[in-house]
Amino acid sequence: MSRLEQLQKFLEIDPNDSFTRYAIGLELASLKSYDKAIEQFEALRASDPEYVATYYQLASAYREDGNKVKAAEIYSVGITTARKMNDLHAAGELQAALEEMEDED
């Protein structure tokens, strides 16, 4: 059984487990299945919008999938959310990633 299959079984047991959904998104992104990773991260963002790590990974998946406009939007929402949660480290990482992406253009 693959790691992805194991994670999916965990999610079947507890569909509200944010960490498991996040891990599935990471696994899909590592397999370059960006569209499926985006689905998982978007589902996580909808169910647990304060799970700050989601924003970096979701924006990165959009970026890898070629949708820089959506990536910039997600980075920006993530920065706002991280600041609201007083997670200044995450806010800084999101800001740096956004600036790096903008510098690519």
Describe this structure in words.
The protein has 105 residues and is mostly helical. The chain has a single domain, classed as Serine Threonine Protein Phosphatase 5, Tetratricopeptide repeat (Alpha Horseshoe). Helix content is 80%, strand content 0%. It contains 6 helices and no strands. Helix 1 runs antiparallel to helix 2, helix 2 (18-30) packs antiparallel against helix 3 and helix 3 runs antiparallel to helix 4. The termini are far apart. The mean pLDDT is 96.
CATH architecture assignment: Alpha Horseshoe
CATH classification, class level: Mainly Alpha
Question: What proportion strand?
Answer: under 5%
CATH H-level homologous superfamily name: Tetratricopeptide repeat domain
CATH topology-level name? Serine Threonine Protein Phosphatase 5, Tetratricopeptide repeat
Major sheet details: none
How many domains? The number is: 1
Number of strands: 0
Order of helices and strands: HHHHHH
Provide a count of the helices: 6
Poorly predicted regions are: none
Q: Mean pLDDT, rounded to whole units?
A: 96
Report helical residue fraction.
over 70%
- Please tell me what the overall shape is: globular
Q: What structural category characterises the helix and strand content? A: mainly alpha
Distance between the amino and carboxyl termini: 41 Å
Measured on Cα atoms, how large is the radius of gyration?
Answer: 14 Å
